[in-house]
Amino acid sequence: MTDSVVASFTETKDDRLREVIQSLTRHLHAFAREVRLTQAEWEAGIRFLTRVGHITDDRRQEFILLSDVLGLSMLTVGINAPATEGATESTVFGPFFVADAPEIPLGSDIAQGAKGRPCWVSGTVRSTSGEPIPDARIDVWEADEDGFYDVQYEGNRTAGRGWLRAGPGGEYRFWSVRPAPYPIPDDGPVGDLLTATGRSPMRPAHLHFKVTAPGYWPLVTHIFRAGDPYLGRDAVFGVKDELVVDFAEHSPGTAPDGRSLDDPWTSIKFDLVLAPLTNR
Ligand code: BEZ
Ligand code: FE
């Protein structure tokens, strides 16, 4: 059976398509044989994928979420962004990036009404050879202290996201809010799968970064908060040790940029290192 299906693709003109579809056939058949898939289980699988399709629209991508909880997204990140010595590690992109977020000046605040303890984020953008990368574009986005991104609220408010350019020495700094752990959207079929398998939908607290500069590989990553109880069981397997950072807690007072705070605040330092395009 398997050999006939694999052979049926022999005339595929595109070499890569032939390789992928023949391999997929072999692995899919091996899976069905290994578990001795019953007719009822096959039907349940089809019903599940149909629900995944029905709930997917412009705002919700349940197929990507399925890929995330199965670890396929992180595996693909790993295959395509092999660690370049010294470069910042990559992790999942996630569904909450917004392409037309506002540009903010270096040192200003992306919170824009997002709830949470103020957090001063600073660092540099450099190449693996240590050169600063002035003007690198840094997109950042995060959930508020209740664990929701702006796009998960009614209305079109932009909060907890924006982009800025690194300064002449590759330095960057901005205000945001201290991120909190949150559940991935779990009111659909992927949430049902997590429940049925006794898994948690929670992700540890993180801040998303996308960093781009001409001549360098784009970097998609997170900063995770050290001590978060979900670091060892991220629902989408995105945690890498190098991305876990201590968040320093401060009493009310004056911040590094001179801002005076009446309430406690937080700060983090995180240097972003990009790999030159020639290095891979
Ligand atoms: C996120 O971190 O925004 C995310 C990643 C994968 C699935 C759901 C959310
Ligand atoms: Fe996130």
UniProtKB/TrEMBL annotation:
InterPro entries: 1_2-HQD/HQD, Catechol_dOase_N, Intradiol_dOase_C, Intradiol_dOase_core, Intradiol_RC_Dioxygenase. It comes from the Bacteria. It holds the Pfam family Dioxygenase_C. Keywords: Dioxygenase, Iron, Metal-binding, Oxidoreductase. This is 6-chlorohydroxyquinol-1,2-dioxygenase. It comes from Pseudonocardia asaccharolytica DSM 44247 = NBRC 16224. GO terms for molecular function: catechol 1,2-dioxygenase activity; ferric iron binding. GO terms for biological process: catechol-containing compound metabolic process. CDD domains: 1_2-HQD. Its cofactor is Fe(3+). Belongs to the intradiol ring-cleavage dioxygenase family. Residues 121-149 form the Intradiol ring-cleavage dioxygenases domain. The keyword ATP-binding does not apply.
